[in-house]
Each structure stands twice: as structure tokens, then as C-alpha cells.
């Protein structure tokens, strides 16, 4: 028998009908088993997640009090190792808060001014002169008004940085909140004026009514620092 004849016979071979049916049944059973195995695998994964997840959460909550001191120690260690980096980060945060605060008060109140104030008093007078005179004298003699909203407050009221800045902006249009804050802190260091946190308005107020100075008080300018830290940046 030649090779060509053998190949032709193999090519033309057809299994008996019974054998073909058995082959299909075997393939079907194998596929069914594979699907069942995959279904059980996914069920085990879901059940495992349902059982393990609460355990992991519980362990995390239980160990939290023990982990917090180590995190605190780590932060303290980093501050000691890199004091300049931590200080720079804080200073940048404070400067950003002051800038955002200036934008906030400008949008809320516009420019403020002193009612019936004689502008000739400020001829050839620098911004520093006006700030000190405002806190020690002008605030006790002139009402404060807003160009956009009218009456703001009367005389003898302690004033916040936002009020002082907006009033300065009316008489000295080119001034910045950073300049105003620097002069305020300079006068505070010289004990010419003082500052305290007002419990009613929750604002840090500048005045010369008393010698009380809340250096460790928080401010409305932003979170994460007190007034003493603010003085380190602008003092």
C-alpha cells in the first residue's frame, strides 16, 4: 500500500455514529465541570472577602491607639531632623491663608472708609502712620462705612485685620494686606497696640484698650497656626 493511499484513507475516515455522540457528551461534561469549578472559585472569593474584611477592620481599630503614638513620634522625629523644611512648609501655609483671607474680605465688604473723615489729615503721611492713628484715635471718632453696603459699625469698636486692611485700601490703594499686617505686628511688639480673640465674632481684634495680648490665640485667617507663629512670618 502506497503512502498516498494511506493518507487518503485517514482523511476520508468517518467515526461511527455512536462514537461521535460519546465525544460530544464528554466535551459537554468537561465544559460543565469547568464552569462549576469557576463558580465555586468565585463563591469562595466572595465568602472570604465577607469574612476577612470585618476582621481586618477590627484589627485596624484595635491597634489604632497603639499605632498613633508611633506616628506622633515619627512626626516629631521628622521635625527634629528637618526643622527648616517643616518651618518653611508652615510659613508657606500661613502666607497662602493670608492671601486667601484678603480675597475673601474684599469680596464680602468691598472698600471701607471712615465717615466724615478729613482726608487732608493724611497728606504726606505714610501707611504706617495711618494704621497706628486709626487704632489709637480714628476708630474712636469716626463711624465705619462700606461703599457698597453702607454703615458697618460705630465708634469705639475694636477692629479686625480685614476691617483695617479694607479701610487702608481706601486711603492707600496700592497697599497690600501683608504690609498692613507687618505694621500691626511691629506696633504690637513695641507694645503700642495689642490684640485678642473676640469670643462673640471669633475674630482677632486689634486695639489699645488694654494690655492683654493673646499670642497663642487662633485667628480667622486660617487653620493650623496661632498668632505667635504668624508673628514669626510677618514680624
What this model shows, in words?
A three-stranded antiparallel β-sheet has the order 1-2-3. It has helices spanning 3-11, 17-81, 83-109, 127-136, 161-171, 177-189, 227-234, and strands at residues 112-114, 144-146, 150-153, 159-160, 194-197, 204-207. The chain has 235 residues and is mostly helical.
Could you provide a short overview of the structure?
The chain has 235 residues and is mainly alpha-helical. The protein has seven helices and six strands. Strand 2 (144-146) and strand 3 form a beta hairpin.
Explain the layout of strands and helices.
Elements lengths: L2 H9 L5 H65 L1 H27 L2 E3 L12 H10 L7 E3 L3 E4 L5 E2 H11 L5 H13 L4 E4 L6 E4 L19 H8 L1
Terminal Cα span: 110 Å
**Poorly predicted runs:** 6-16
Question: Class by helix and strand content?
Answer: mainly alpha
- Spatial order of the strands forming the largest sheet: 1-2-3
The biggest sheet amounts to:
3 strands, antiparallel
Q: Report the principal-axis shape.
A: elongated
> How many beta strands in the DSSP annotation?
6
